[in-house]
Amino acid sequence: MISIIIPTKNRAEALEKISLPSLVNQTYKEFEVIIWDASDNEGVLRVIENFPELNIKYFKAPRIGTSSQRNDAINKASGEIYYFIDDDTELSNDALEAILEEFSSSNDEVVGCSPPLISSNVYEGPFLKRISSFIWKPFTLIFCLPYQSHYRIVKRSGAPCWPAKDTPGLVQWLQGCSMAFKKEAFKIRSFDERLQNLGPYAKAEDVVFSYGLFKQGKKLLITRKGWAKHHFAPGGRPQSETLHASALFSIYFIWRSLIWPENPCSVVCFFLFLFGFFLQSLLLSIFRRNLWRLKGFFIGLKAIRSSELARRTTMDQTMKNRE
Fold first, then answer.
1. How far is it, in rounded angstroms, from Cα 116 to Cα 221?
2. Quick one: residue 286, left, alpha or beta (phi over 0 = left, psi -120 to 50 = alpha)?
3. Torsion of CA 269, 167, 181, 142, to 10 degrees
4. What 3-state DSSP class applies to 48?
């Protein structure tokens, strides 16, 4: 059985119009839907009443945060496969069937997969696209992607998506809006809640988790059929200086914990990325006539400095204890 886990907060409309309707006509029927609700109203409960045909288990989230909500939800899951989607993720009718077939036909090293992802997020113009490309190139170098599979985004709607990839195959991480894992993956690691230090809905918990599995020798892949579409519905992560800071800190966290120990030379790529992130923050602050991105950059930089100082203090204490 597949346990579909949907963390949500104050987005009953997205559940009602996007994610839950796409589950009604799935060709594979052996699944449960776990809704982990951090809302401050009863909207989600009212929506659930409109889908009696789905096996929905509703829980009120005792803790708020992307990582903590997902970690708590798996304790209530009954399936052997955990499929995490967002409340604004739409699935093709054969998406669950595709996931099950991929796991059934793959070896034990494959612990995660996702249908090809369709993104409705569109870049605003060629200039901003070039800026984003400048930032992601050194970031890609940090991860040394051998499969050229940084993202698997399918251009089905005709909207310009970057980068456009629709070839099934191995990847190094999966995106939080659509990622399925075998139950055994959570015996290896869990979603890292330290990423929530700069806010409960910080970014990159999906990358830290799935890329961490990859670094431990496990395989992740994109299925050969089906699709998942992320709609970026209103009311998601609020665009703020805290979120911008968390994006910067998350990338630092990934690099420091997963990349640097094996490849110290990657510090060059990280500083290139840091410069690119600053440049993007500066230019967007100028063109959009608000400073929250630039403020967020310096908040993130301060958090990185604090983390490095804490790490150094811990190392010094360890050395003293050994002496």
1. 10
2. alpha
3. 0
4. helix
pTM of structure: 0.82
pLDDT of residue 166: 44
Contact in structure between 139 and 269 (CB atoms under 8 Å) = yes
Task: For residue 87, give the nearest of 232, 185, 194 by alpha carbon.
Answer: 232
- CA separation, residue 260 to residues 18, 229, 256 (Å): 39, 33, 5
> What's the rounded Cα separation, in Å, for the pair 119 and 112?
20
Range in 16-30, 41-55, 114-128, 292-306 with the lowest mean pLDDT: 114-128
Superfamily of segment(s) 2-240: Spore Coat Polysaccharide Biosynthesis Protein SpsA; Chain A (3.90.550.10)
- How far is the C-alpha of 2 from the C-alpha of 100, rounded, in Å? 8
Which part of the chain has CATH 3.90.550.10? 2-240
Q: Contact at 8 Å (CB) between 120 and 157? A: yes
Q: Where are the alpha helices (DSSP H) in the chain?
A: 12-14, 21-24, 43-48, 66-73, 95-105, 126-143, 205-215, 241-254, 267-288, 292-322
What's the CA gap between 128 and 219, in Å, rounded? 33
